[in-house]
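Fig. S4 source data, part A: sequence.
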Amino acid sequence: MKNVFYSQSERISFWVSGYGCSSSKVSEVVEWLKEKGGLASKSFGVELDAVRWYEITVSRRYKNMHVLYAETDIVPENAFEIGEEWTMDKWLSN
């Protein structure tokens, strides 16, 4: 997976998954979240119930994209580790 990050200061793994599902059908949005949530949980090494999601509303780079995240002590493979001075929200809104 691309766009996977790890916040050292918060011990949070997060994945900017892109713009996501554009459907207005609840069933399709739920299926999209299950699919992407499953990928994130596998990458982060956590159960699906531990994965959270939201749409990024303020950002020069990631506006209107979706982020999936979870608290974890393990840095995911291929994740970019952001420094101690950064948080997930600070990184995404920059």
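Fig. S4 source data, part B ends here. The mean pLDDT is 94.
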